[in-house]
Design goal:
By secondary structure, this protein is α+β, with helices and mostly antiparallel strands. It contains 6 helices and 5 strands; from the N terminus they run αββααααβββα.
Amino acid sequence: EEIIRERTIEIRQNSEALAASERRYRLMADNVNDLIWLTDMNLNFIFISPSVYRMYGYTVDEAMKLPHEKWNTPESYMKVIDTYTRELQKEKTGGNAPDSHIILLLEQVKKDGTVFPVELKVSVIRDDKGEAVNIVGITRDISERIAIEKEKDVIKEQLTQAQKMESLGTLVGGLAH
């Protein structure tokens, strides 16, 4: 009876620890701004974080059923398929490092049809034998980053023009004297 009681206590403690871990995981997934997703090796979604609604306008249920070509512009969809095919081939021949990841810059489509730039960081999850079993990714909206880079380019161009004008003014001033 003592062994059963100790085992029952151990199982209860493990169950409580697992429940606490699940709550932390859910809290994180529910509150992150980026989209976190998980697929099987055939690219069927297993998990999509609730941030899909803020980012794309889809509910989790809608997003889980959405075909991959609907997420991306045609060009980005081809980039995804080409990359997936290439990386799957590397996986079959043992050419991928176990802890590697890929970063893709794509244009994706929101539920309302708005196209926006994203950065995907994709990794393979492996089982105990080192076999690829899932694909996990984080999708980040980089619209703001792109806008800032464009603004920086405009400012650089304006600075270059101002420097040219200053040089020209100095030259003309020197000639006048």
